TrEMBL record:
<dbReference type="GO" id="GO:0043190">
    <property type="term" value="C:ATP-binding cassette (ABC) transporter complex"/>
</dbReference>
<feature type="transmembrane region" description="Helical">
    <location>
        <begin position="53"/>
        <end position="79"/>
    </location>
</feature>
<dbReference type="GO" id="GO:0015920">
    <property type="term" value="P:lipopolysaccharide transport"/>
</dbReference>
<keyword id="KW-0812">Transmembrane</keyword>
<feature type="transmembrane region" description="Helical">
    <location>
        <begin position="12"/>
        <end position="33"/>
    </location>
</feature>
<keyword id="KW-1133">Transmembrane helix</keyword>
<keyword id="KW-1003">Cell membrane</keyword>
<feature type="transmembrane region" description="Helical">
    <location>
        <begin position="99"/>
        <end position="117"/>
    </location>
</feature>
<feature type="transmembrane region" description="Helical">
    <location>
        <begin position="280"/>
        <end position="297"/>
    </location>
</feature>
<dbReference type="Pfam" id="PF03739">
    <property type="entry name" value="LptF_LptG"/>
</dbReference>
<feature type="transmembrane region" description="Helical">
    <location>
        <begin position="334"/>
        <end position="356"/>
    </location>
</feature>
<dbReference type="InterPro" id="IPR005495">
    <property type="entry name" value="LptG/LptF_permease"/>
</dbReference>
<feature type="transmembrane region" description="Helical">
    <location>
        <begin position="304"/>
        <end position="322"/>
    </location>
</feature>
<protein>
    <submittedName>
        <fullName>Permease</fullName>
    </submittedName>
</protein>
<keyword id="KW-0472">Membrane</keyword>
Amino acid sequence: MKKLDIYITKNFLKYFFYSLFSFLAIFVLSQIFKVLRYVNEGQLSAGKVPLFIGNLLPGIIINVAPLAVLLGGLISINIMASNLEIISLKTSGIRFARLVRGPILVSFFISLVVFYLNDRVYPGSVVRNRELRGKEDVEERELPKEKENAFFRNEEGRYVYYMKKINREKGIMDYVEILDMSEDFDKIERIITAKQGKYDFEKKIWIFKEVNLYYPETDRTESRVWIQDEKYRDEPDRFISLSNIVPKQQTIAELKKAIKEGSATGNEIREILSELGKRYSFPFASFVVSFLGLALGSHYVRGMSILNIVISILLGYAYYLVEGAFEALGMNGYLNPFLSGWIPNLLFLAAGLYFMRRAEY
């Protein structure tokens, strides 16, 4: 069985790489016209074209890997089926799922490689191409001086700020409301409202003026001219963050940091959540579609070579279409934007397992 696994896996890898390089060539050629337009418009110098195209490769590999796995599985198994190898092996009592174990494991390894490229290589390549075109990187932009209707949640100190406006340079917030929460963050212990908060940059502490304090448990109210509490030491910059980061330029760690900061300051994070979900889910599309490709290639049909290509393209674009649809649902609030990226994988995995079962007979 070990020799059989090696034989089937080698065939799968051969046609996977054939498919991968073919799709790479097609997609690179499709980008040439865009690159030439950048050169003509003066956005890119001719000497930097090879470097620019090189930076496009990680993104292209990530996108075409599922297509290459799908087509590689279809062709390699269909050739064995046309030579009556599949039917002979099944007749001898070897289950189809056992025959394709090697290609499925290789597909999982391919998914891990794509995951690495997607997290570690692709974001940097996007940033470098923006720099080659002279585009400003969002990371280099300054934080705005002021923000209206700001929100900040400090989970360590167990309190939440709301304010009508904050100026981070002057360290002034207007019409402030602070909710002191219980240890489990499920109950309000104290509500502080103040007309103004002033940050002492030397002592690194907030001083609140014209203050009302309310204790919900005892229904008690206090009024003070000013208060300061050692726990309210959050620097003004923490209340404002860049909400216009480009998610594609961030690694998974940076996306998680942006989500944490966005949640703390009340910024919209659906796009970032969606990108994070896609970073985890899309690389495993290669593993998911391998079941479909291997199962559909198990039955020999005359003239299947051309049909293989058509099937792989149709199934590949069907996956992208379903993925795009669920991504849109997540972005518009109908689904959790993180989980919406996994639904296409689950649907296509279910279809792949169904056809794998059919391939046993």
